């Protein structure tokens, strides 16, 4: 018995330690996921496009992942719209009578990320400015809707199934400020006192005060503020100019104005030089900004990156900065989240098509002796046949006979019309719901928390 106890102790010591999110720390890293920013700028490099959410939870580097974005608040059937670019959108499949994307295949991925101690938030808005409230009462009703669809409430149309997200983020970059303070107050009234902590965050521009969420963050207790120090004259590219780079102004706001005197303020940064119009600084410069700001301002919470695809394609800038701040990065893993290099086989390394497998844009399969590449999210759409959407489109592109293909990865095809790139408002935008996908039945909702 004593020997068995020692054995169990030894085995326990070999198990990976899960680092739970600690809000009090000042070296946390927040990385937005959902919009495939790298893919929008580099259509010819699909290996570095946005991958499934689980790919970004493999090590300890990222602490918080806001899923972006809920792009409309009241659409068909009175429900919102959700667009996750090449992973899931209305074109992938919707709930009956709505334009709300059914992304319930992500349920297990979100649960796995949370099990690794990461906060998973749902982010509202984005750069398009099409998500707006017309009144405070509409905003208050929508707070209840978000509770039922994404948090601890109950609904038959939950986009991520039974999994309960950790909070809501406001990334409002256009439209109007109407309703956001009312939304935040109602959100707090719903979530306060529950047996799970629900976070409320925002991502204002660095220019102070913020046009869209300034009233909300100054009248309701927010947990974290992810300030966008890019695409503005006060961005990280002017760090050192006391008359321009204004983290001190936000620190003063945190201590004197914010209803939550323990609110955490983050330095937001583009994760590469193509992630924003301007304001990018390299990993060493951002590490210096982060460490100096950390030592000077007590409100500093860490660094926020836009976005995951850009960070992983840029040599894991997130990991470099996290390490500089003294945070754990755990298992270093790969420097990219791209697909593995094919190792051969009868179709350049591509696996056979499977009707039960969920495919996303850029993934490949072999079928009837040919190589096929998915243009967007697909499940049970047979290669060579019109998709079940009924819009006359083909999910799969025929890339030729397997007998003539050595490396399938060199022939990746995808469809990029789902992408919304918040970093560059001049990019063409296709909003969720303009191409409506197949109706997918929901799963059961969780019990209220």
TrEMBL record:
Residues 27-328 form the GH18 domain. It holds the Pfam family Glyco_hydro_18. It catalyses: Random endo-hydrolysis of N-acetyl-beta-D-glucosaminide (1->4)-beta-linkages in chitin and chitodextrins. GO terms for biological process: chitin catabolic process; polysaccharide catabolic process. InterPro entries: CBM5/12 (IPR003610), CBM_sf_5/12 (IPR036573), Cts1-like (IPR045321), GH (IPR017853), Glyco_hydro18_cat (IPR001223), Glyco_hydro_18_chit_AS (IPR001579), Glycosyl_Hydrlase18_Chitinase (IPR050542). GO terms for molecular function: carbohydrate binding; chitin binding; endochitinase activity. The keyword Signal applies. Residues 329-350 are annotated as: Disordered. Residues 1-20 form the signal peptide. The keyword Nuclease does not apply. It comes from the Eukaryota. SMART domains: ChtBD3 (SM00495). Keywords: Carbohydrate metabolism, Chitin degradation, Chitin-binding, Glycosidase, Hydrolase, Polysaccharide degradation, Signal. GO terms for cellular component: extracellular region. Its EC number is 3.2.1.14. Belongs to the glycosyl hydrolase 18 family. This is chitinase.
């Amino acid at each position: 018995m004593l020997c068995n106890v020692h054995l169990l102790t030894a085995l326990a010591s070999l198990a990976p330690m899960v680092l739970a999110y600690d809000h009090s720390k000042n070296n946390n890293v927040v990385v937005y996921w959902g919009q495939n920013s790298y893919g929008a700028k580099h259509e010819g490099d699909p290996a570095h496009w946005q991958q499934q959410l689980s790919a970004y939870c493999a090590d300890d580097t990222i602490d918080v992942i806001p899923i972006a974005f809920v792009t409309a608040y009241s659409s068909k059937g009175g429900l919102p719209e959700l667009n996750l670019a090449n992973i899931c959108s209305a074109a992938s499949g919707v709930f009956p009578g709505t334009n709300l994307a059914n992304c319930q295949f992500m349920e297990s991925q979100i649960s796995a990320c949370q099990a690794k101690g990461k906060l998973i938030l749902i982010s509202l808005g984005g750069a398009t400015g099409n998500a707006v409230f017309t009144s405070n009462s509409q905003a208050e009703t929508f707070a209840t809707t978000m509770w039922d669809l994404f948090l601890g409430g109950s609904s038959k149309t939950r986009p991520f199934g039974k999994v309960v997200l950790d909070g809501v983020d406001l990334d409002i970059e256009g439209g109007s400020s109407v309703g956001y303070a009312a939304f935040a107050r109602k959100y707090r009234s719903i979530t306060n006192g529950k047996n799970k902590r629900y976070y409320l965050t925002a991502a204002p521009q660095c220019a102070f005060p913020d046009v869209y969420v300034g009233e909300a963050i100054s009248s309701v207790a927010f947990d974290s503020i992810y300030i966008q120090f890019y695409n503005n004259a006060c961005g990280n590219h002017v760090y050192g100019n006391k008359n321009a780079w204004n983290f001190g102004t936000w620190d003063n706001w945190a201590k004197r104005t914010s209803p939550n005197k323990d609110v955490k303020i983050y330095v937001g940064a583009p994760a590469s030089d193509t992630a924003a119009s301007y304001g990018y600084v390299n990993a060493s410069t951002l590490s210096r900004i982060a460490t100096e700001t950390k030592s000077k301002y007590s409100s500093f919470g860490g660094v926020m990156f836009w976005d995951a695809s850009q960070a992983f394609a840029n040599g894991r800038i997130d990991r470099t900065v996290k390490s500089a701040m003294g945070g754990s990065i755990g298992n270093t893993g790969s420097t990219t989240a791209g697909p593995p290099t094919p190792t051969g086989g009868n179709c350049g390394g591509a696996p056979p098509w499977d009707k039960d497998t969920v495919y996303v844009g850029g993934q490949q399969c072999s079928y009837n002796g040919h190589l096929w590449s998915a243009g967007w999210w697909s499940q049970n759409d047979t290669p060579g046949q019109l998709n079940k959407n009924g819009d006359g489109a083909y999910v799969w592109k025929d890339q030729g006979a397997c007998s003539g293909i050595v490396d399938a990865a060199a022939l990746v095809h995808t469809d990029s019309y789902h992408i919304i790139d918040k970093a560059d408002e001049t990019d063409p935008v296709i909003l969720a719901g303009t191409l409506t996908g197949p109706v997918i039945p929901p799963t059961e909702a969780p019990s209220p928390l």
